[in-house]
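R.M. (postdoc): so does anyone remember the format we settled on? I'll just put the structure tokens first.
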């Protein structure tokens, strides 16, 4: 079902505004055990929406956010500092030099706590 989503380069992460409108964003994705994980700036809109309500949908996409497969409902939660550090390590490993440079740039601009890991668990029911 979602096992292949962690293998792809991009994940279309859709969060929901208070009024129910969907906001889809392509993010880098890594497998994290039986979960998926992504990374984002702490003050981004998607992080604010996840903080308010963890209901999301996820699916494969290209770099521009064009879906390349079916999406599924999921639940996202924000990670603490150690969890976020672990996800940054997984991203650096998967995305190589591009990942490491992006993470370094983020750390230089925002500091260590300026980005946060996002843990994503696909829903078991419809």
């Amino acid at each position: 079902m979602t096992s292949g989503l962690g293998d792809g380069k991009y994940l279309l992460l859709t969060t929901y505004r208070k009024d129910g409108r969907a906001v889809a964003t392509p993010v880098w994705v890594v497998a994290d055990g039986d979960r998926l994980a992504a990374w984002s700036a702490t003050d981004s809109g998607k992080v604010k929406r996840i903080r308010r309500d963890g209901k999301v949908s996820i699916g494969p996409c290209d770099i521009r956010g064009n879906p390349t497969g079916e999406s599924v409902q999921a639940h996202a939660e924000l990670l603490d500092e150690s969890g976020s550090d672990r996800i940054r390590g997984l991203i650096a490993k998967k995305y190589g030099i591009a990942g490491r440079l992006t993470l370094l740039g983020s750390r230089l601009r925002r500091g260590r706590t300026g980005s946060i890991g996002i843990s994503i668990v696909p829903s078991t029911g419809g």
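R.M.: ...and that's the designed sequence above, right after the tokens. Also worth knowing: The beta strands are 10-16, 22-28, 30-32, 35-41, 55-60, 72-78, 115-122. The two ends are 13 Å apart (CA to CA).
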